């Protein structure tokens, strides 16, 4: 087909497509955070359910407001004396507390506290007293086990027992909590 019979707009689009195919994408600068922080609820099921522990980890001046909540489709195993959240059956509930993380610094402190054995995962967070048909849901995040399965053992975590044994929040990497 003769180039002159193709409308100019189509020729420009074809030329732009060819140019785009021949161009290498610009590399991302790792020093730039491309996803801006936004406040978000996090579901805690272990030591961070304790307001004093969360206050220490986040270096807060006031006791944090925690909401009694639960998540569906998970179960708990233990990594030493600490709980590990794992994917489970849809009808299985894990109870805990939710907290709205207020800053990137706080999120960074939580990630350091949880260590590289856990990863952040999206989840639906329900009020603790809601039934299975509840539509009252917060979409948030939690820390899911990301270590090896053989590092875990069967068992339940009791915050009361953990506190009664005199445990405290461990220091985060490079921090002097």
From TrEMBL:
The keyword Transferase applies. GO terms for molecular function: transferase activity. It comes from the Eukaryota. The keyword Transferase applies. Residues 42-162 form the Gamma-glutamylcyclotransferase AIG2-like domain. Residues 156-177 are annotated as: Disordered. SUPFAM superfamilies: Gamma-glutamyl cyclotransferase-like. InterPro entries: AIG2-like, AIG2-like_dom, GGCT-like, GGCT-like_sf. Keywords: Transferase. Belongs to the gamma-glutamylcyclotransferase family. This is Putative gamma-glutamylcyclotransferase. It comes from Byssochlamys spectabilis (Paecilomyces variotii).
């Amino acid at each position: 087909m003769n180039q002159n019979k193709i409308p100019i707009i189509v020729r420009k689009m074809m030329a732009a497509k060819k140019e785009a195919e021949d161009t290498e994408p610009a590399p991302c600068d790792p020093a730039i955070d491309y996803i801006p922080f936004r406040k978000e609820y996090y579901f805690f099921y272990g030591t961070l359910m304790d307001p004093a522990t969360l206050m220490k980890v986040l270096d807060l001046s006031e006791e944090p407001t925690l909401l009694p909540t639960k998540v569906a489709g998970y179960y708990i195993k233990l990594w030493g004396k600490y709980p590990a959240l794992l994917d489970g059956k849809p009808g299985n509930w894990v109870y805990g507390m939710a907290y709205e993380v207020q800053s990137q610094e706080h999120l960074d402190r939580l990630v350091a506290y949880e260590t590289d054995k856990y990863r952040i995962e999206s989840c639906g967070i329900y009020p603790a007293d809601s039934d299975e048909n509840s539509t009252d849901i917060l979409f948030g995040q939690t820390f899911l086990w990301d270590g090896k399965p053989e590092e875990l053992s069967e068992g339940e975590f009791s915050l009361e027992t953990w506190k009664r044994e005199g445990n405290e929040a461990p220091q985060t990497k490079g921090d002097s909590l």
